[in-house]
Structure formats: C-alpha cells, structure tokens
Task: inverse folding
DNA sequence: TTTAAACTCTACTAATTTTACAGAATTAAT
DNA sequence: ATTAATTCTGTAAAATTAGTAGAGTTTAAA
C-alpha cells in the first residue's frame, strides 16, 4: 500500500500538472486544493524538489512548479522516492537491493525467483502510469 | 513490501510443500529449517490454519500439513491474509475496499483509475505465482 | 490415568515507522 | 524595512510490526 506521504505527493503533482505552464503554486494553495496538511506538504514538496520532480522559487510570490514533464514522472518514480522498493522483498529489488539476513544461499531461495517476476511485472505497470496519463482522465 | 510475517508464512508453506504427502511437520521443525522464530511461527501457522491453507493435528506427534493443493495457494492469497490489500490504496481494492476520508468525489479522483489498473495487473501476476510454481524452481 | 509433547489462545512489550506539528532561518519582492 | 514565501531541524504522538511469555488444551502412549 502507498503511504499517506506518497499519496499526498501524487495529489500535489496532479495539482501542479493541472495548472498553466509557468504558473507557480504556493504550498498553502496546493494544501487546500488537495486536502493535505500544510506542514506535512512542505516536507513532501521539499522531497520532490530534492528528487528533481519539482522546482521552487523562494521568497515572496514564490512557490512550486513541475520541473520534469508530466509524461516523465511515473508512479514508479514517486513510489521509489517515498516508499522505496517496488519489489516485495529487498532481495528482489533493483534499486533497493539488500540481502536477506536469514538467507543461506540466495541463488537457492525458492521465493526470490517468483518475487523477481512480480517485480518485473509491477514495475512495468507502474512505469506506465504517469502524471500526464492520470490527469488526462 | 512484504512483512516478515508474510515472508515467514511463504517460507513455511514452501517447507510443507516439499515434504511427502501425509507427512506432519512440527512447528519447531519448520522453524529450524526455515530460520523462523518458533513462537512467532506458531502464530503464523494458526493464521494459515484459520485461512484454511494448512491443517493441524493436535497433541503428541501432532503438527501441520498443507490443506489446500500447492497449486491452489497463490502469492495473492497469502499477501491478502497477512498484509491485506493488493491495491496501492484502499479505494482501489477489491477485497479491502474503503473510501478515502479526504476524497470529495471518488468518481472524480484522478489517482484511483490508475491505481485500479495497477491492482488488476499486479493481482494477475500474484495469482500466477503459486506455492507449487515456487517449489518447482 | 498419568505424563509428555504437541498445538491453541490471549496478552503484553519493544522497536520501528508513519504522520504529522513547531519554530527558527533564509530568501526575494516591494 | 516589511512581508510572504520556502527551507531546515527537531520533536512527538499514533500506529504498526515483530517478537515474547505463559497458561490452557489436546492427543498418544506408557
């Protein structure tokens, strides 16, 4: 399941994607439109900025805007940024690989192969969902 | 990601699937073979029993055995039993449906449609992975 | 009928993660 | 200077997860 954070991040990105290009959205504006606690959203937008998905303008009349094209922001990207691995176990993950501490021989693990298959399929599906595809209905 | 509980449940089921039919496995035997804390495993096996995936024989020389065919136990089943919904949000779930509290109009929600697509695809993938398919390499 | 060896059940606890909130610092426009 | 915004760090409550404890129940066999 997605965490609230990821869900809020997606809703914020959707809001930004719906604005005119060059429009700069204040945090409070996004928070109200998308029903997100403002202080929590501040953190999320900072994370999105560090992930280079959004840009910001500081100071008075500042705010946030999409940095990447909405076609280039996928559900997989945002999931990885906030919730981490797509795979069901770290040992089956591409970007968050970690060995299982209780695993004697990874190549012998019956579970791992199946989980890699799942990861490949869900990843493909999640990469197919972009902010753009969500916005256009 | 899978919880430890789900991972342990799968490992326990894999162990049971590898035994001869009619063989009854003691909890301690499974725990040692699959590196699972015994007391934790007891709970897990009880849950698997309540889910009708395994059966048990009580008393001396008792233990656990597969109740369903290993072809009929899917990753989706076990995920649902221990970790709940396959979908990324409750509002996109079949078996664990719940309305989002912050959602004004569900039919208008841009996120939900995409998440339903994802759920359909991951569910199909997870239903394709059975204990049998995992055991036979 | 007693004992041993197993499952069954409920409750508890510790650690971790999630979900925020608070407030000071910084930046930029007027 | 002042105002209005982002930025940064730290804190805290709530929920979840992972695991432990211990008493109870069942069954087989001596």
Result:
């Amino acid at each position: 399941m997605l965490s609230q954070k990821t869900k809020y991040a997606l809703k914020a990105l959707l809001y930004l994607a719906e604005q005119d290009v060059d429009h700069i959205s204040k945090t409070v504006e996004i928070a109200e439109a998308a029903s997100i606690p403002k202080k929590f959203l501040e953190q999320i937008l900072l994370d999105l900025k560090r992930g280079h998905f959004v840009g910001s303008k500081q100071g008075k009349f500042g705010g946030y805007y999409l940095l990447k094209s909405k076609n280039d922001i996928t559900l997989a990207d945002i999931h990885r940024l906030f919730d981490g691995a797509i795979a069901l176990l770290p040992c089956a993950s591409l970007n968050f690989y970690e060995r299982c501490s209780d695993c004697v021989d990874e190549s012998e693990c019956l579970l791992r192969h199946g989980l890699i298959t799942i990861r490949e399929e869900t990843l493909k599906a999640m990469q197919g969902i972009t902010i753009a595809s969500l916005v256009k209905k």
Chain B has two domains: 4-66, 75-129. Residues 3-5, 37, 39-40, 43, 57-62 of chain B lie near DNA strand D (CB under 10 Å from a C1'). The two ends of chain B are 22 Å apart (CA to CA).
